[in-house]
Amino acid sequence: MTEFAAVDAALLARGFTRMAFDLSKIGELLDLLGSPQRAYPSIHVTGTNGKTTTARMIDNLLRAHGLHTGRYTSPHLATVRERISLDGVPVDEERFVATYREVAPLAELVDARRPESLTYFDLTTAMAFAAFADAPVDVAVIEVGLGGAEDATNVLHAPVCVITPIGLDHTEWLGDTVEDIALAKAGIIHNGATVICAAQPEEALGPIVERCVEVDATIAREGTEYGVLGRSLAVGGQVVTLQGLGAAYPEVYLPLHGAHQAQNAAVALAAVEAFLGVGTDKQLDPEVVRAGFGAVDSPGRLERVRSAPTILLDAAHNPHGMAATATALAEEFAFRRLVAVVAVLRDKDARGMLEQLEPVVDAVVVTRNTSPRALPAEQLAAVAVEVFGEDRVSSQPGLPDAIEAAVTLAESDVDGEPAGVGVVITGSVITAADARRLLKR
Question: Can you list the domains of the chain with their CATH numbers?
Answer without folding.
Answer: 3-294 (3.40.1190.10), 301-439 (3.90.190.20)
